[in-house]
Amino acid sequence: MTRIYCDPWLLIVHKPAGLLVHRSPIDHHETEFALQYARAMNGGEHVYAVHRLDRPTSGLLVFARDAQTASAMGKAMMAGEVKKTYLAMVRGWTPEQGFIDHPLRDEPEDKRRKDAPQPVRDARTRYRRVATTEIPVQIEGHATSRYSLVALFPETGRRHQLRRHMKHISHPIIGDAYHGRGRHNRYFAERFGQGRLMLAATGMSFRHPVTDVPLQLHAEPEASFLQVLSIFGDALPASLRAP
């Protein structure tokens, strides 16, 4: 885990894919969490996770260093004052841009409670296509396979929102074991020797909860993400090409 920003009130890190933010009732056997590493970065003092990233998602993760800052950041997120940007590689060629306004039923963290009634909440995501590619590989009945790299801008923060919204518009995220397409996931796992969710939290902007100074944060995707993006070749922005 890498530190991106730190001051007396906030600690912001880049969480790698595969690391839980904190202990989960369905992953009770796990012993390593982002919260532990953040606490170590904070000199062993307690930190507060302001939000969460799914275990397979990499990218920016915010911790508060005191309860008051945690409360202020939580309120800012609930009010939509924290703007987030994600990158995702999806199946198919998406439109150049779009807006997904599709309510989602809450997903309980504990899958053993999946049959319990859950409320339906508003969920909104904007997206913009960054690049496209077509590879000469037959995966689902066509002689070639098409993919898009998209920037995603969630306007709400529902559980698995981006993954569920991209599935809803028939452009599931590569590597998504629950909402994606198995044949595509297996192809990339075999081609690159590792399977990962192609979703990364790369940008965040908000006004500092204490100083009121605007913060613009950015984190480059990790190497495993950039490796898969190599299929886009020259269509990929130079900043996203693996060294």
UniProtKB/TrEMBL annotation:
SUPFAM superfamilies: Pseudouridine synthase. Its EC number is 5.4.99.26. Residues 102-124 have a biased composition (Basic and acidic residues). Residues 10-168 form the Pseudouridine synthase RsuA/RluA-like domain. One of its GO terms (molecular function) is tRNA pseudouridine(65) synthase activity. InterPro entries: PsdUridine_synth_cat_dom_sf (IPR020103), PsdUridine_synth_RluA-like_CS (IPR006224), PsdUridine_synth_RsuA/RluA (IPR006145), RluA_PseudoU_synthase (IPR050188). This is tRNA pseudouridine synthase C. Gene3D superfamilies: Pseudouridine synthase. It comes from the Bacteria. It comes from Noviherbaspirillum autotrophicum. Responsible for synthesis of pseudouridine from uracil-65 in transfer RNAs. GO terms for biological process: enzyme-directed rRNA pseudouridine synthesis; tRNA processing. PANTHER family: MITOCHONDRIAL RNA PSEUDOURIDINE SYNTHASE, TRNA PSEUDOURIDINE SYNTHASE C. The keyword Plastid does not apply. Keywords: Isomerase, tRNA processing. Residues 99-124 are annotated as: Disordered. It catalyses: uridine(65) in tRNA = pseudouridine(65) in tRNA. Coiled coil: none annotated.
